[in-house]
Design a protein that fits this description.
Chain lengths: 295, 365, 269
């Protein structure tokens, strides 16, 4: 085969076609995601001058990000909030996903999924704002409880603190958790459960020994899908968190848009990403036995 | 028979895996040709190489004398019926069948007439306006046939067209495909893993294993004179017994068959050539006969008789298959007998005499 | 499976809690009071009327619409290319490349926002509607890919080969066979990208120029207590719009399945 035929073959080959097709999107991701992320990383090693950036690499930003007790506190708080939200969301979501997968007639399933995901598609900003309205001093909860005579004075512990942030985030991310678990449950071969019961296990034990382990990939996905974005959430802590409820995203925003300290902001952002990635990898590692199962 | 497709040393690699090696064959014009073999033997790959969906890694494919190197599938004089039929679900039956005529410059009424004719040929007259996704499996297959044939290709390629149909429909379609091919007169190349299907429909069959053609012959030749144990075992049922070849003299071969004694057979009964040493012989089930009271072994004096016990009886209505353990032979031989009115069916455990003809053996060295 | 009443009750209660805040929107949008609290005062449409009089709001709506439409078209195009590459072809580096393209799905949006800000300002590009579009396309494309992946996967590969075999070119095969059959996926992708872009706040917040998007505008109004009821009215309209768009998307999804005789596996993703 001469060179021309080989080239012609390659152009028509699967690999070439695939590469050509993926190139616009890949290029876009490269320019809009890879380069900017690299830029942040670069910035995190530079220093903030008065009017411009000083171009000598330094670890001072990281020293400040990790050393300053305020930032450490905010980071821990973010981790705590995310973990709590994730736990609550996933635990509450599992029975719903289980119900729709195992108890709803097939023709109705898409209706249920549709109903569950609608809130997800409405404005996040509006939903957070609604919680502020609900939990406020003069808000819905307080005014109803007062009118009903259950309390004498409005509750103050439900807004402008960590509690409010957790409640709001758990509500907002609920649909995120249901879908991956549902998908995993749907993939479980129903005859496996029948076989288990045929071999003498009760329904509860069949669930524990068959369904639950097989659903783990979905649960893991749900955990990651809730944990990672919530830790970097800006709107909720800003609106309902108050000074006690600030999370890492608020601090980062401060550095960028108010204090104009890009290097410190970048160091904080990079550190946060590092921590989140580390936690996620540890979580994945702990569950590896269940994730290796292929059906 | 003038060859319409010439394959010379065709090779196909997927990375390091060799899917086809040394494929050389001529397929004649107007022939019903089958590629037969188990899953993974490369038959579909070869079909796709002829169609142009895959490029060959080595060797050449010539259609009508022209080398097909560099010619893409949409420019080749072939059309394909896919295993899944690939009926366009968003079009009607008529739109499906007339799909290939889109680039044709003929006026609309002519095209519509061609579509109607194609539908009539496959027995789907009046189905034109049906939505394609509402058809049954058998109907889809006919639409796929009509759609391919309307373009009057030189060769029609069929990729396991009957595997998705149930048994009765499959048998019906086998006859219809044969009839259609004779009516249209073009070359059909069929890929199948069902040896019965290939035997029924084909003029010639290429039996493939592991990317190579093991034997290319007519159904009769394949059945009666398979060139290897692998081919023999794949086509129909065959009983195998170990045998030792002692001498090869001119046209006769002397060998010792385990449990049956010394036999002299014709050299023609060794399709792959005879040589001294260890080998095996094969008998088709219908070449062994259960003898009833008073019957003697075959005419012409060549028949021999052995005694044994019936180990298993499988009654099929028109035939009965017996597994008989002959004295001195450990593994039972399968014997098929037509059920004739008045003749009894042997029972499990009964002693029986079995007649066999040395002229029906095939020797594998 | 039999039984499951306990589950059913739980699921319904869950749904009620999920929707409860959203139901407050129309409740207080029509409430004749500037304070969002119980008990309810009378009925009024004043807040809605007030919305019609604010030019800044109208500007923000226009900006948001332009951005959303552009984003959905671009994201769907990029998503179509990528989904087809992912489902039909094997090429070197496929795993990592696809993983990277889908990364925005799991990245906190603030990271995406600040990183784009840094680069754009560094190059010297002025912030405007286009910079917002750049950011939105980045986060919408993974959704488009997810939707179109399943559209391509349910498309029998032989259909395109059959069209090709019957004499069509690769381009005409795409328009005659592939495109009509993935149309439901394309519509879903357009609608969902549009909705995401319309509602998106944080990236717009960082990357918007002098003309804010609707969420950014809403944000700026949240600190004024007197504006709250009209925000409720606005929210009601937005939620109603989102739900309508989604119902349209769902309708087309089901229609597409009916038309090609496929199976309903439930939901977009």
């Amino acid at each position: 085969m001469d060179a021309r035929t080989r080239w012609g073959r390659f152009l028509r080959s699967e690999a070439a076609s695939g590469l050509i097709l993926i190139s616009p999107t890949a290029l876009y991701a490269l320019l809009m995601l890879a380069v900017p992320l690299a830029a942040i990383l670069a910035y995190s090693f530079l220093t903030d001058g008065y009017l411009e950036i000083i171009w000598t690499p330094t670890l001072a930003n990281y020293a400040e990000a990790w050393g300053d007790p305020l930032y450490r506190l905010v980071m821990f708080r973010s981790l705590f909030v995310s973990a709590t939200v994730t736990l609550a969301t996933v635990l509450l979501a599992f029975p719903v996903a289980y119900y729709v997968s195992f108890y709803v007639a097939p023709q109705r399933k898409s209706l249920w999924l549709f109903l569950i995901t609608i809130p997800f598609w409405t404005s996040y900003l509006i939903r957070v704002f609604l919680w502020k309205v609900i939990l406020g001093y003069n808000g819905v909860v307080n005014s109803s409880l007062l009118t009903l005579g259950i309390i004498d004075e409005p509750l103050t512990f439900i807004l402008y603190n960590v509690n409010a942030v957790v409640i709001t985030l758990a509500h907002a991310y609920a649909p995120f958790a249901i879908l991956p678990i549902f998908v995993a449950l749907e993939k479980i071969d129903r005859t496996l459960l029948e076989a288990s019961q045929d071999l003498g296990e009760s329904k509860l034990l069949s669930f524990w020994r068959v369904t639950l382990p097989l659903s783990v990939p979905g649960v893991v996905a749900a955990v990651l899908i809730v944990f990672i974005p919530t830790i970097g959430d800006y709107v909720t802590p800003q609106l309902v968190g108050g000074p006690e409820g600030r999370m890492i995203a608020n601090v980062i925003q401060l550095q960028y848009l108010r204090l104009d300290n890009y290097p410190l902001g970048s160091a904080l952002a990079a550190s946060a990403m590092l921590i989140v990635t580390a936690v996620s990898l540890v979580f994945l590692f702990l569950n590896r036995r269940f994730l290796r199962v292929r059906q | 028979m003038k060859p319409i497709i010439e394959l010379r040393d065709v090779e196909k690699y997927y990375g390091d895996f060799q899917a086809l090696s040394g494929i050389t064959a001529d397929i004649g014009e107007g022939e019903f040709f089958s590629l037969l073999g188990p899953s993974g033997c490369g038959k579909t790959t070869l079909l796709r190489c002829i169609a142009g969906f895959e490029d060959v890694s080595g060797g050449s494919v010539r259609i009508d004398g022209k080398d097909m190197e560099g010619v893409p599938a949409n420019k080749r004089p072939t059309n394909m019926v896919f295993q899944s039929y690939a009926i366009f679900p968003h079009l009607t039956v008529a739109e499906n069948v007339g799909f290939g005529l889109r680039r044709d410059s003929r006026p609309k009424p002519e095209k519509a007439a061609a579509v109607a004719e194609a539908l009539a040929m496959v027995g789907l007259t009046g189905f034109g306006e049906r939505a394609a996704h509402a058809l049954s499996g058998g109907q889809r297959q006919r639409v796929a046939l009509a759609r391919a044939l309307i373009l009057k290709p030189r060769v029609l390629l069929l990729d396991e067209p009957l595997s998705a149909l149930d048994k009765k429909l499959r048998e019906q379609m086998q006859g219809e495909l044969r009839r259609l091919q004779r009516q249209v007169g073009i070359t059909f190349i069929l890929v199948t893993h069902d040896q019965e299907e290939a035997l029924i429909m084909s003029d010639r069959i290429a039996v493939m294993f592991d990317g190579e053609i093991s034997q290319l012959a007519t159904p009769q030749q394949l059945y009666r004179r398979p060139v290897s144990r692998q081919v023999a075992d794949f086509i129909g049922v065959m009983n195998f017994l170990p045998a030792a070849v002692s001498a090869v003299n001119g046209g006769m071969v002397a060998c010792e068959v385990a449990g049956l004694g010394r036999v002299e057979i014709d050299a023609e009964q060794c399709p792959a050539g005879a040589k001294a040493g260890e080998g095996s012989v094969g008998f088709r089930p219908e070449t062994l006969t259960m003898l009833y009271e008073g019957e003697t072994a075959g005419e012409g004096g060549r028949g021999r008789v052995a005694e044994g016990t019936v180990a298993e009886v499988n009654y099929f209505g028109d035939m009965t298959y017996y597994d008989v353990r002959l004295d001195g032979i450990e593994q039972p031989l399968t014997i098929s007998m037509r059920n004739v009115v008045g003749r009894k069916v042997f029972e499990h455990g009964e002693r029986a005499q079995v007649a066999w003809d040395p002229g029906a053996l095939v020797l594998f060295c | 499976m039999r039984g499951g009443t306990g589950f059913r009750v739980y699921a319904i209660v869950y749904l009620v809690f999920l929707y409860a805040p959203i139901f407050l929107l129309p409740l207080f949008a029509f409430n004749d009071s500037t304070i969002i609290a119980f008990p309810l005062s009378g009925f009024t449409t004043n807040w809605f009327k007030e919305l019609a009089t604010i030019p800044a709001l109208h500007g923000a709506v226009q900006t948001s619409l332009i951005i959303a439409v552009t984003t959905s078209i671009l994201a769907t195009c990029l998503g179509t290319f990528a989904a087809r590459a992912a489902t039909r072809y094997d090429f070197p580096g496929k795993g990592p490349v696809m993983g990277f393209i889908m990364l925005p799905l799991v990245l906190p949006e603030i990271i995406v926002a600040v990183s784009l800000l840094v680069v754009l300002l560094g190059i010297g590009i002025q912030l405007s509607a286009w910079t917002v579009i750049l950011g939105h396309v980045l986060i919408c494309t993974p959704f488009a890919i997810a939707i179109l992946n399943s559209a391509f996967q349910s498309l029998d590969k032989s259909l395109e080969e059959a069209a090709y075999d019957l004499g069509e070119t690769r381009w005409s095969t795409f328009w005659l066979v592939t495109f009509p059959l993935i149309m439901p996926g394309i519509i879903s992708s357009l609608l969902i990208s549009f909705t995401i872009s319309l509602d998106e706040f944080i990236i717009a917040f960082f990357l918007t120029g002098t003309e804010p998007t609707l969420p950014v505008y809403i944000w700026s109004q949240l600190r004024f207590p007197t504006k709250l009821p009209s925000i409720m009215a606005l929210g009601t309209i937005l939620v109603a719009l989102s739900i309508t768009l989604l119902m349209i998307a769902e309708y087309f999804r089901r229609k597409g399945i009916r038309k090609t005789g496929g199976k309903d596996t439930g939901g977009f993703l």
